[in-house]
Design goal:
about 170 residues; alpha/beta; globular
Length: about 170
């Protein structure tokens, strides 16, 4: 089995956020790899990754980083694969805004799809949607996931109707 998605994080301190992506891909039965690579501390490894990812069968990259958050952009600069950036709130960040802006404000020609702060699960969902364009099995699993979301909301509303309040108007 070859990985289709590569989850990359700037350091393992990003793992509590990035594991949300891994868990979703696991649930969807999509093969993935997960590694720490630093645009600043291991730039040669990042370049090696970008040069070889597509050859190894990777279809989508999810890259999370906090602080200056250059990793997603550096990866996007070195590959034609779709890159989904996850801004990560870090202990040194400016409440995450530095990460968001570093990933979001890419120059023309180097796009990075950017999800919400700490939004690794949405990054995995977006990666799944990209893969579903050419894989009917993934499309079926994604359709089921969306149906399950709808069912959860319908059930939540049923539960809310049961809650009693004196001044509630129905």
């Amino acid at each position: 089995m070859k990985a289709l998605v590569s989850i990359i994080m700037g350091s393992t301190s990003d793992m509590p956020v990035m594991e949300q992506a891994a868990k979703f891909l696991d649930e969807m039965e999509i093969p993935f790899e997960i590694n720490a690579l630093s645009a600043h501390r291991t730039p040669e490894r990042v370049m090696e990754f970008t040069e070889n990812a597509q050859k190894r069968g990777i279809k989508v990259v999810i890259a999370g980083a906090g602080g200056a958050a250059h990793l997603p952009g550096v990866i996007a600069a070195g590959t034609t694969l779709p890159v989904i950036g996850v801004p990560v709130r870090s202990s040194l960040s400016l409440d995450g805004w530095d990460s968001i802006l570093s990933i979001l404000q890419m120059p023309a020609g180097i796009p990075v799809a950017t999800v919400a702060l700490d939004g690794a699960k949405n990054a995995a969902i977006l990666a799944t949607q990209i893969l579903a364009l050419s894989d009917q099995g993934i499309q079926l699993a994604l359709n089921q996931f969306k149906k399950d979301l709808k069912t959860k909301v319908v059930k939540a509303n049923e539960d809310l109707r049961k809650a009693e309040f004196r001044f509630r108007v129905t």
